[in-house]
Amino acid sequence: MDNIYIEYNFKVIPKEPAAEILIAELGAVGFESFVENEDGVTAYIQKEEWNSNILDTIFVLNSDEFSIEYNQNEVEQTNWNAEWEKNFTPIEVDEIVSIRAPFHENPNLKYDIVIEPKMSFGTGHHETTHMMVQHLLQLDLNNKQTLDMGCGTGILAIFAEMKGAKPIDAIDIDNWCYENSIENVTRNNCHHISVFEGDSSLLINKKYDLIIANINRNILLMDMKVYANCLKEKGILLLSGFYEEDIPIIDAEVSKYNLKLEKFIQRNNWVALKYNKL
Description:
single chain, 278 residues, alpha/beta, Alpha-Beta Plaits, Rossmann fold, 2 domains, 4-stranded antiparallel β-sheet, 26% helix
């Protein structure tokens, strides 16, 4: 029997950056598929995961900066891949990295990442993924032992291997992301990435030269001590998944563990921070 989903159609004015913020916040409360359109976002959540108060904690819906209207209805499980094919457009980062689906033409840039995003996060459209790719572009990753925490579609782990990192662990707590990352690792002919389903409890006794964590603020704060303990001396920690106004609270936590903020990138209201372990 097909699953029943609750479909929300959000009309967002102005669309950016409100649509990106909305998708991030909805994902945090259990929505698992998103389709962006000209007017805003359509979002889906399984009916069994839904409750009538599901939107009560969505901050952006109450922001004075944006006007967001929505309606909802029940739908049967749809062909998600067909929806992605209609709506997923290729991305280019700094004219060096292309992120595309198999049905897109190869633009022949230096790095070409091919993903089938399905319902996972991290298509490259989100500001945070884009900025993390920009950070990785500027790093020497040759033979760097790397962790991609909250890997989503596996884009950042895949790009790290393309830049010479190995071995690489990619971890996500979501089963769909876990399965999708395995598929995308194979699709991009990667041989040094191990994908795991789980959380930071998998990191006991692990050590890395580079840790990439593109997750929401509260998870980052909760797991920061674990990341710091896993980072080798002079290692690099890349953090994203939060807004500019969150920098002070993130920095205060990271600074407890002998890590120094070296650089940050900002895109709309999102930021990606680079820390070095002293």
